[in-house]
Amino acid sequence: MFKKKWLAVIAVAVASSAALTSTAYAQKRSTNSAAIGSYASQDDAFLALRDASRANNPDKAELLASTLSDYDIPSYVDYYRLKPLIKDLVAPQADIRDYLNRYEGSAIADRLRNDWLLELGKAGDWATFDEQYPKFVLDDDTQLKCYALTSAALKGTNVAAEARALLTTPKDYGPGCTDLIGTLAQNGQFTADDVWFQIRLAVESGFAGVARRMTPFVDADDAQVAQAIDKSALVLARGPGAGRSGHELFILALGRVAKNDTGRAAGALNASSDQLTSSERSLAWAQIALQSALKLEPQAIDYWRQVKGNAVLSSDAYQWRVRSALRGGDWKLVRSGIDAMPAALRADPTWIYWLARVDQTEGKTDEAQQKFQSIADQTNFYGQLALEELGQKIIAVSSTQAFTPAEMAAMTNNQGFRRALRFFDMNLRFEGVREWNWELRGMTDRQLLTAAEFARQNNVLDRMVNTSDRTKVEVDFNQRFPSPHRDVMTTNTQNLGLDMAWVYGVIRQESRFMRSARSNVGASGLMQVMPATAKWVAKKIGLSGFTTDQISDVNTNILLGTNYLSMVLSDLDGSQALASAAYNAGPGRPRAWRSTLPGTVEGAIFAESIPFNETRGYVKNVLSNATYYAALFDGKPQSLKARLGTVAPKGFVESALP
């Protein structure tokens, strides 16, 4: 049955990805005689070309490109002209190869090769794919990696281990990765365990559509998987049944029900436990435990104790087992949870640090010190904490780098940097960052510091910070932790009694000092203030005549942002850890997270167990930033642990703040 289903999938895929004929290509390339319309400037025409290309409108893109024959960024004009014709391999290979030869070594040529490789993989043109893939410099596209493994597997190479290591994030899969799973299932490199793991992972990650694309590769049909996802209560009521697919569908349904009611899911599992194998019971409890952990329920740790150490879990599940143990103070489970992680995950500084802390609790001082030492040179949250465990404090030496005219001239004459600045002037941040970062490849520490200074001179502070952050040995803390608008910031923080280092730590994380920064939810300016929040704060502090278009003004943005930070800090008992979480996720959420604590925990445990990925990283980065800023401002060693403090449980009460 599997083979017939798989052959049907292949047939559909081949039919849908067949290349258009040369006649269709000629039709695509034909243009009508209608005028394209006038634009105020060549930049406006270029922006219209970009939009037409992104909309896969080859006729309009060709017309617009023809008006830009003397534009100062010809590689992008030619890219946007050609890109719509890459889709479905409409453009002749000769045109694509000509472009790559003309602009070889540039960021945009690498981008075009990425686009072409995706279409080659989709069409199954493995000869051309295999020729071009080694030339793709960035190699940062998960789908292309999946296509590369598919090509190798079709030639008889065993790629199962590489595929398991790659296939961890379903949101990045696309058809290339689900086809890889099917190929490996068909040729026996993936077992049913592998495929069902991928289905569970996709459902767990919220990508039901990806999970359903894998149903042809298991002994269950789409309707059954859809029912386990969408009508999970019915599947639980029916029970696991006798066959493998019934057991797997039951486990899927447990995870879905647990999202809303872990107690109900646990009850269903207990009632049917004797119908499952020991390994299936572990996987089932892991489904429930993960959802309970994400809700910070105290019983999560009990669910995790039902999961065997050798159970194959998702990356999230491995990590949340340890986070639940940290919240519950179960150091034995912390150790066993970290030991069970795959090697790559276990090597993350987060888990090196916490495993060293376990060593401390067990009196294994030498082992703990070795682990702390291995990450203490890293300028990040856990590197700083490790340094403190070694009896040292965090320092940041202010430096005044001197760069020679020859060093600066090399940056000024760098064509990629010039294109980047051109794009930044046009507010094309994506293209600008791509060009800038492309040029940083292979630079020495000294060159990176010079490039960061070039960014500073051109008032592109986010590039200064990100470029300087890349150095390995030479560190310039003034570049990494700039403090522009110091006069405005000093006035506002002093008036409010706020820690200026913390505010700068927030800004560095929020906007990287881009005054025009705007988030996808509408937050604006240096401190990323939301319009509704700005109005509320302006009214609260008596800022008369305020309108939301003033948010982008530096003085107004800092005034509103610092006042709101001060209100949030007061609302959360002066805890910078809680207040930082509130600034990112809203003031009600950290109150709720705090209320579920089983007892007082150190601030690092609270931060690590924040259930929102973005907010967890945000809080750790903000407080790490603030510690370095304090070291720079005060000129003396600082303690991140002291800044984190402790967080104690407190009954949940709604916040009055927006």
UniProtKB/TrEMBL annotation:
Keywords: Glycosidase, Hydrolase, Signal
Molecular function per GO: hydrolase activity, hydrolyzing O-glycosyl compounds
One Pfam family from the record: SLT
Signal peptide: 1-26
Location of the Transglycosylase SLT domain: 491-595
Record keyword S-adenosyl-L-methionine present: no
Enzyme Commission code(s) on record: 3.2.1.-
Gene3D superfamilies: 1.10.530.10, Bacterial muramidases
Top-level division of the source organism's lineage: Bacteria
Keyword Hydrolase in annotation: yes
GO cellular component terms, A-Z: periplasmic space
InterPro entries given in the database record: Lysozyme-like_dom_sf, Lytic_TGlycosylase_superhlx_U, Transglycosylase_SLT_dom_1
SUPFAM superfamilies xref list: Bacterial muramidases, Lysozyme-like
Class of enzymatic activity (EC top level): hydrolase
Family: Belongs to the transglycosylase Slt family.
The protein, known as: Soluble lytic murein transglycosylase
Organism from which the protein derives: Collimonas arenae
